[in-house]
Structure formats: structure tokens, C-alpha cells
Predict the structure of Very-long-chain 3-oxoacyl-CoA reductase.
Amino acid sequence: MDKITHFVQKSDCNAIAVAIFGVIGAGFVAFKALSLLKVLVDVFLRSGTNFKKYGAGRGGWAIVTGATDGIGKEFALQLASKKMNLVLVSRTESKLKAIAKELEEKYSVQTKYYAMDFTKGSDADYQGLQQVLNSCEVNVLVNNVGTNHEIPTPFEQESDHIVKNIIEVNINAAMKMTKIVVPQMIERKNGLIINVGSFAGLVPTPFLSVYSGSKAFLSSWSQAIGAELKPKGIHVQNVNTFFVVSAMSRIRRASLLIPMPKPYVRSVLSQIGLSGGASTPFTSTPFYSHAVANWLIDNVFSRAFWVQHNYNVQIDIRKRALRKREREAAAAAKNQ
Ligand SMILES: NC(=O)c1ccc[n+]([C@@H]2O[C@H](COP(=O)([O-])OP(=O)(O)OC[C@H]3O[C@@H](n4cnc5c(N)ncnc54)[C@H](OP(=O)(O)O)[C@@H]3O)[C@@H](O)[C@H]2O)c1
């Protein structure tokens, strides 16, 4: 009899344990499913802050760095289409002039432009830009300008000037630009700072280590100043960007995961204040396929897995880039 009672009690315990683990498992799966659902709701159904809050159509200005090509040019065009006046910054004066004219003619907005090379980190350049901005009510800053390694390269072999340029453009420029515009934003208790980040900042990327580190800096710094500036009425949004067709990415054709700058920037500007696929504060992954990729990175496999994945991808890209360099060198030698 005792044996039977003991057996019944033991099987009851097993059933309870299975039920508890079942409930925990189902809760875990439901939690994950809900977090994915929230991502999809953000990117497909919800609308972010309207740019009227930032003075669109009422004389407000936006400043975009790296505004003459790729993602930055698209920010300038789409912000102008929302009736923001625009300050454009990049190196090439002729391109700046042409885009400023295009914006004025197409969207009847005011424009200013300033040519500077951010790699120089010149105080005189930043002071000159500050003077241009003093006469504008700047409500939106897009820290878009960025530079990358020429090809995936082991850190110890990377040239000092490329390392310096990445730090100067991707880190120092964002901080200096923010220092220039934030005092007037604080005074008005109104402003938006968009920092164009990268998946390379989300998952460390071997062989693009300095670029990857610079975007990780941007992510962490955005979250820190995001919390500082929120009570002062300023919203900071670091934007996690996977590949986009551009000169920098050297990708020419769009695909499901790689949009053209136009739909990409449309997704950014329509989701201000929303997180999309990002799980860190003051961060957004707004493009739908990037958002799902971000969710997968955060929720499937370990970070070590994704770092190794990036290692494998970059080593493959490096091999192809080196073969291309060899072909080009051979062709050049032949033509001499
Ligand atoms: N494309 C992607 O797949 C991708 C992915 C993740 C993140 N991002 C980020 O997105 C941002 C924009 O990239 P993009 O792909 O649009 O680049 P892009 O097409 O190469 O355009 C770069 C823009 O920046 C300007 N610029 C470049 N170096 C400059 C410098 N030293 N000083 C001043 N202006 C400079 C260029 O104009 P000038 O040549 O006239 O100066 C151009 O307007 C970067 O921060 C990048 O890290 C891009």
C-alpha cells in the first residue's frame, strides 16, 4: 500500500513539475511572440512624432551632415518635403549648391550650406558652421556623416590615418555638432537629434573594428545623452541601420534586406519616438526587414554566435576585396 501511495505521490510531483515548466515555457514563448508583435505593430501600424512639433512649416530648421549623397541627401529631401528649412553640410561645395537649389525650387524652403571636411576636425570649420547656425532656429540635427574602413582589415594592419578619420567623422563630428546646436534647443525646450548608427554597433564586427566601435560609441552615447536631454524637451534617437544601397555600402541593387535610401529614410522619419526592432532606449530600427533582423539578433542565438557570424562574413568580403585589388594592380601594371 505504502509503495502504491509513494508511486502516486511521485507521479503527481512529476505532473506538477511538467505543468510548472510547461507554464514557464509557454509564458516565455508568449513573451517573445508579443515582443515580435510589438516590433511589427511599430513598423507597420504606428506613426511617430509629427515634424510640426519641430517647426515644420513654421520656420524651423534642420541640419544634416553628409547631406549630398546616399542616406544624408535623402534626409535633406524628405525633411524639406515636410517644410523644414535645411542647412546642408558636406565636403563638396558644387554638390551642396545644386542640392540647396533643388530643395528651394521643389519645396519652397530656405536653405544654407557649409562645405567642410569632418576628417580635419578643424575648430575654425566648426566655428564657421556655428556662425551660419546662429541665425537659424535649429530644431532637428541629423548626425549622418560617416566613414568606414576601405576594406575589412585586421586592426593591427589598419593605417593610422583611416583609424583617425573614422574617430574624427563618426564620433567627434557627432559630439561637436551636438554641442553646437543643443544650447539653443535647450533654450526652446524643443529638439530632435537623429544619430545614424549601424548594425556594426549592435554586433561587434571583426575586421571593421574601428567603424564597429565608433557606432557602438554612438549607440551608448545616444542612450546616455538621450536620458539627459529628455527632461529638457529634446528627443535623441540612434538609428540602427543595416545595409542600404549607397556609395559607402558599395551595394548597387536593392533587395528585401537592403533598401534604397528613399524608403529607408521614410521609415526613419515616420517613426520618431518609436523603437521598431530595437530593444535599447533612445534607439530605433525602423525599416521593417532591419527591424526583424534586429529582433532575431537580440532573441535568437548568443551574441558570441553573431560576432562569429560577422567574422565569417567579413573574412569572405576581405578575400574578395584583396583579389579585386590584385586584379586592378595587374591591369594597371599592364597599361604602363
Ligand atoms: N549605406 C549603408 O549600408 C549604411 C549602413 C549602416 C550605417 N550607415 C551609416 O549611414 C551614414 C551615411 O552613409 P551613406 O551610406 O549614405 O554614405 P554615402 O552615400 O557615402 O554618403 C556620404 C555623405 O557624406 C559626405 N561626406 C563623406 N565624408 C565626409 C567628410 N569627411 N566630411 C564631410 N562630408 C563627408 C559625402 O559628401 P562629400 O563626398 O561631398 O563630402 C556624402 O554626402 C553613415 O554614418 C554610415 O555609417 C550606412
